[in-house]
Design a protein that fits this description.
With 599 residues, the chain is an alpha/beta fold. Helix content is 44%, strand content 13%. It contains 25 helices and 18 strands. The strands form 5 sheets. Strands 12-14-15-16-17-18 form a 6-stranded parallel β-sheet, with helices on one face. It has a 5-stranded mixed β-sheet with strand order 2-4-7-6-5, with helices on both faces. A 3-stranded parallel β-sheet has the order 10-11-13. About 1% of the residues have low confidence. The structure holds 2'-deoxyguanosine-5'-triphosphate, calcium ion (CA) (2 copies) and zinc ion.
């Protein structure tokens, strides 16, 4: 386990102990231990454990040292597993309600006997929560709003988390005997920022063993359907998944159909009909294929499936790959990310689809945090991780002084970091070059946290909004435009501030900001954090065509966060972006030139 994962485990222990009403000193020891760990470098932690010297670190006593050692060595902790099992799941769920921490949940449980969200909602509705010491009307309202939010958002899941669940399942399906092909289709394959449910597709002759394997996966909480050719399950996280099993010759049609989107499918079917063909998840057949007699095996008379079943084998259009399927309809291959029914079929027909950016095109990334502000890994650790990814460069952009809640840097600390980075580059310790920078707050009136003189000493200036979210659209738009009009600004961070499934965007006129960014030669980032993916993919195609330059920024707060650029690549592809549209596909020398040209 990495030190950040261990820190998370310690923090979780603290939370669970607090939920159980344990001794506050014990609770605090775990919370403090988590923070202490974050300040130690990974290699140093390994050394301390190996040498048995963990207890020499201030804030780590015997109990913690033993648990850290166990987690580090085995990736598991029996103590934590038992603790999890001893706390009612309903209480843990309450932690996700904004405004509720372990202390309040404890009080709700002890004084009102509440143990799950349904009971909590009922108690809020009849005013029992407001009457409780330390709660009041305002808190009760906030809890109710949080519950309503949860209801609305709880139905979808972040692409990143859904992909983490889906990947091993696809691998597992492919490894089953008799399975010819397996893919995850649906919105996941199209790279949507959120996913409603997973759609697995398998080509196999023998259905039963595949269904058996799928419905007995470790994290399956409930099997909601189990039929002859399909099954549906719900995982512990609430995510649901459909599995469909088809004969090998139908696989490509089913894959295309269940990849969607619905709009894309409708247009494809119309296109097929215009060419005298009928396209469905079952196959591609001549539109005038004879209507079947009643009783065709497994097919409802009059349906396309029946038509396919009745069509002489020689009439059926044989297709082995999606490339061939598109070709039969006079089209070039359309990557799944573009299948949103937003003009991709027309462009494909003309042979004018873009050559979409790929993960391998990235040479580095900007906008990353370190322990200097609110990151969880040191500068050196971040650079080492970037080097391990094969990146030519890494841009650091810690928060600025107004973001005090994120330990933002003052001028003095920023300039000290610049020195540290220059020394690191000069030492040639890493192959990855480090660009200096800041994620500078855009103040409420559009001024910036640092002067032009400070900016002049940095390679890259990212400016972002982190407060006064409730401004009206005109004020917010003018504020952001004022910020990006200032000299030395390289790029605008997270345009709308949205947190997917958690927090709405602030109000801003994106079109106006895009025009201003282009006019001022400022980049807009595609923040690749799976919770942000901001600016939204729906805006990129038009913006890039107008000349806006993109940068895919992980906004990493720890080494593992650098890999979030994958989510950014997805969103960029959905936005029709090509390599040329993105700064961090350029080699270091070209990036240096670009940044210098901005000064
Ligand atoms: P999701 O799950 O809400 O994130 O979105 P999808 O796109 O994965 O939708 P889902 O799971 O309901 O269905 C998977 C695909 O199956 C969908 O993208 C297109 C296809 N599909 C589903 N229902 C229909 C339909 O009524 N008509 C057509 N043409 N295709 C459909
Ligand atoms: Ca789906
Ligand atoms: Ca589905
Ligand atoms: Zn930010």
């Amino acid at each position: 386990m990495t030190k950040n994962e261990i820190a998370d485990a310690l923090a979780e222990i603290g939370t669970l102990l607090e939920l159980k009403g344990e001794n506050p000193f014990k609770v605090r020891a775990y919370q403090a231990g988590a923070r202490v760990l974050e300040a130690i470098e990974e290699a140093e932690l390994a050394r301390l454990i190996a040498a048995g010297e963990l207890m020499s670190v201030k804030g780590i006593g015997e109990a913690l040292a033993q648990k850290i050692g166990e987690l580090h060595g085995t990736g598991r902790l029996e103590f934590l597993e038992k603790l999890r099992a001893s706390v009612a799941p309903g209480l843990v769920e309450m932690l996700e309600v904004p405004g509720l921490g372990p202390k309040k949940i404890r009080a709700l449980h002890d004084k009102l006997g509440l143990a799950d969200l349904a009971a909590l909602a009922a108690a809020c509705e009849d005013g029992r929560v407001a009457a409780l010491d330390g709660f009041g009307e305002k808190t009760q309202e906030k809890i109710l709003a949080g519950l309503a939010h949860r209801e609305a958002y709880g139905k979808r899941h972040l692409w990143w988390l859904a992909a983490e669940i889906a990947q091993p399942i696809v691998q597992g399906l492919r490894a089953l005997p008799g399975v010819k092909h397996a893919e995850a289709a649906g919105s996941l394959r199209r790279g949507m920022e959120t996913v409603g449910d997973l759609d697995f597709l398998v080509a196999a002759a023998d259905v039963a063993p595949v269904v058996e394997w799928f419905t007995t996966l470790p994290r399956v909480q409930e099997v909601t359907a189990k039929g002859e050719t399909k099954a549906s399950v719900r995982f512990e996280s609430g995510l649901q998944a459909d599995l469909r099993i088809v004969p090998e010759e139908q696989f490509v049609f089913a894959l295309h159909h269940f990849t969607g989107s619905k709009d894309h499918n409708v247009q494809m079917r119309q296109r097929a009909l215009a060419r005298g063909l009928r396209l469905s998840e079952w196959g591609l057949v001549p539109a005038q294929a004879r209507e079947p007699d009643a009783g065709t095996a497994g097919a409802v008379p009059g349906t396309v499936k029946a038509a396919v079943a009745q069509t002489a084998a020689s009439d059926r259009v044989v297709v082995r790959t999606e490339v061939e399927l598109f070709k039969k309809l006079g089209l070039h291959f359309i990557p799944p990310e573009l299948r949103e029914g937003m003009g991709e079929i027309e462009e494909s027909e003309k042979g004018e689809l873009p050559q979409l950016v790929e993960a391998g095109d990235l040479r580095g990334a900007f906008h990353n945090h370190t322990t200097a502000s609110d990151g969880r890994n040191t500068l050196v650790e971040m650079v080492a991780a970037a080097e391990a990814l094969g990146w030519e460069y890494l841009g650091i952009a810690d928060h600025s002084k107004s973001s005090f809640q994120a330990n933002g840097l003052t001028e003095e600390r920023l300039l000290a970091q610049v020195e540290e980075i220059r020394a690191l580059n000069a030492s040639q310790r890493f192959k990855t070059h480090v660009f200096t920078g800041t994620e500078c707050d855009i103040l409420a009136d559009g001024r910036l946290d640092f002067s032009a003189e400070i900016f002049g000493q940095l390679d890259c200036v990212v400016v972002s909004v982190h407060n006064a979210f409730s401004q009206d659209e005109a004020t917010m738009t003018a504020r952001i435009i004022r910020a990006i009009e200032q000299p030395h600004v390289t790029m605008l961070g997270h345009l709308t501030g949205r947190l997917l499934l958690r927090r709405e965007s602030y109000r801003v006129d994106a079109a106006k900001v895009i025009d201003a960014a282009i006019a001022n030669g400022v980049i807009i980032e595609l923040n690749a954090s799976p919770w942000r993916l901001d600016m939204d993919w729906r805006l990129w195609r038009k913006a890039a065509a107008k000349g806006l330059l993109c940068s895919i920024n992980p906004d990493a707060h720890e080494t593992a966060g650098l890999e979030h650029v994958r989510a950014g690549i997805n969103a960029a592809r959905k936005g029709w972006l090509m390599k040329e549209n993105i700064l961090n596909t350029r080699p270091k020398s070209a990036v240096v030139k670009y940044l210098e040209g901005k000064k």
